[in-house]
Amino acid sequence: MGQRRFSQILGATVAIAALVGLVAYGHQTIKAAIVRQPPPPFCLPTAAQPTHCYPVATMLSRQPITAIATNGSSNLLVSSHHQQIEVWNLQTGQRVRSLPGHHHWITALALSPDGRTLASGSLDGSIYLWDVNRGTLQASLFARHVTTLAFSPDGSTLASGSRLVPTPAAKTFHPLQLWNVATGELLTNLTVLEPMTAIAFSPDGQRLAAGTERTYVWDVPTQSRLYTVNSGDLNTVIFSADGRLLLTGSDGVGGEDGIKMWDANTGKLVRVLDSVASDFALTPDGTTLITVYGGNANFWRMQPFGFLGTLRGSTYSSITAKFGLDGTAIAMGSSDGLKIWRPVTPP
Fold first, then answer.
1. 137 lies in which domain range?
2. Please, what is the Cα angle at 194 between 189 and 200, to 5 degrees?
3. Phi, psi of 167 (to 5 degrees)
4. Rounded distance, CA 281 to CA 118, Å?
5. 152 and 8, same structural domain?
6. Which of 121, 214, 276, 282 could make a disulfide contact with 146, Cβ separation 3.0–4.6 Å?
7. Do the Cβ atoms of 231 and 277 come closer than 8 Å?
8. Looking at the predicted structure, is the pLDDT value of residue 255 above 90?
9. What is the rounded distance in angstroms from the CA atom of residue 106 to the CA atom of residue 118?
10. CA nearest to 87, candidates 116, 58, 64, 113
């Protein structure tokens, strides 16, 4: 009797153990399947084309990225890592060439509107102008420390700015300068007595916006200051494609009201977004805006203005973002690498 009872208990124990093992195996199988399942694609509606969806990012480099540049329409993407510049083909995702030469960290990159000339700025005090297609150095400019660059729409003028506060020993301080791209000649030092964190030309090239604690707008031909807007501590600035709006991005107050839109002609405040921004990017046709903060890129429709969605660029690093391939490709650089998203058209 005792032997039978023991056998029953043993059998029940084995059955329970087998059931527990089966449940655990099933749980692990389901969990593994969920982990393997890719996230749903990020999709953007477009004005004149089918919706573009971006299923998975392509990692081009795992090196920490200090700056990236595109000109929006070409197939080139340029990135910098410490003292090294890399040129990439956005269509293939392949590296085209490397451009060595700077002796300190590269802090700013800009591609000319025709995609032929690359400007790179470094903490070594130099601005290099490159023939980006041939990989040859065209000119070297000395501008002390450079942290931001922008080409005029016709590519003839380069604006350089510095957010770095000069040392007490510095005899001169020129945080905003204009250069002749063809000759490398310094055209002017715009009158400003504070560091410049961001700069942007208007689409017609007649105005230049730049600032730090506030944003100033100059008339480029006369070099006269037109107006000043209360942007807050400026992180990024851009004009709308039609030139009617000036957009400024800051940390805001308590993480709010950091993105402001101004009438570009008068400086009058038009709209305030309950969001913040460290970087802006516009598609070449001006229909879609990216606002970046932390590791997230938020996408907005410009007309009528509205929120489109969020794309996660990094899990732990702040990012910078640009459009390429006529606004269809998205590139993001951060301390955890360089990624691109290329679109597929949904069936």
1. 42-341
2. 65
3. -75, 160
4. 18
5. no
6. 121
7. no
8. no
9. 13
10. 116
